[in-house]
Amino acid sequence: MQRRHLLPFAAAAALVPLPAAAWFWRRGLPDPADATTSLADVERAVSRLIPVPEITPRELAPRLASMVLFDVREAEEFAQSRLPGAHRLPPDMPAEAFRAAHAERVAGREVVFYCAVGWRSGRMLERVQALIASARPAALLNLRGGLFRWRAEGLPLEGDAEVHPFDAQWGRLLRRTLER
Predict the structure, then answer these.
(1) Closest by alpha carbon to 140, among 115, 158, 114?
(2) ∠84-67-160 over CA atoms, to 5°?
(3) Which helix (DSSP H) or strand (DSSP E) does residue 141 occupy?
(4) How many domains does the chain have?
(5) pTM here?
(6) Distance of alpha carbon 110 from alpha carbon 166, whole angstroms
(7) Environment class of residue 111 by beta-carbon count within 10 Å: exposed (0-12), middle (13-18) or buried (19+)?
(8) pLDDT tens digits, residue range 87-119?
(9) DSSP 162
(10) Helices 39-49 and 119-132 meet at what angle, rounded to 10?
């Protein structure tokens, strides 16, 4: 008997819908729903998986007004709270669209990309860094730990004082971080 068109187990498993957070852990990030996962664990994983230059919240805070800030989160997250003066970018924005819209804004400036924990912003920075080099930004940086770390360090936000949790599982990580 001949078997036709059977998918290997791994390919079939990839077709099964997963919770939003599972998308992250399948790419090597720790599971935010796991009570043993800390924001520091996530920060280390992001740094390892997306090796781009980073800046910490404490390094950024005194220089905030001189930086160009890009918030790489969904509109609902941005509407709730953000860094003062930030410009929102859709997480799936193509690099070419970024260059067309922002090349003049970043020319000669230090630029910081951020999101909730640094994953989406790091991916955006990876996509745009080579294409935007012709604008000669002074630096392109990813905010280590994102707004979760910013909030955990008690730094000020524009809008609501609370950070949007992204989803329930990442919200648990945020609560654990803030309770420490």
Answers:
(1) 114
(2) 15
(3) strand 139-143
(4) 1
(5) 0.85
(6) 27
(7) buried
(8) 999 999 999 999 999 999 999 999 999 999 999
(9) S
(10) 30
Let me know if residue 132 belongs to a domain.
Answer: yes
Q: Is residue 12 part of a domain?
A: no
* CA distances, 93 to each of 26, 80, 125 (Å): 22, 21, 11
The two three-digit tokens of residue 98, written as one number = 């970024």
Q: Does residue 40 fall inside a structural domain?
A: no
- In a domain, residue 105? The reply is yes
pLDDT confidence of residue 19? 52
CATH code of the domain covering residue 83: 3.40.250.10
Question: In the β-sheet with 87-88, what is the strand arrangement from edge to edge?
Answer: 54-55, 139-143, 110-114, 68-71, 87-88
The answer to whether residue 2 scores a pLDDT higher than 60 is no
What pLDDT band is residue 172 in, cutting at 50, 70 and 90?
very high
The range of the structural domain enclosing residue 169 comes to: 54-179
Q: N- to C-terminal Cα distance for the chain?
A: 61
pLDDT for 28: 87
Q: pLDDT at residue 30 above 50?
A: yes
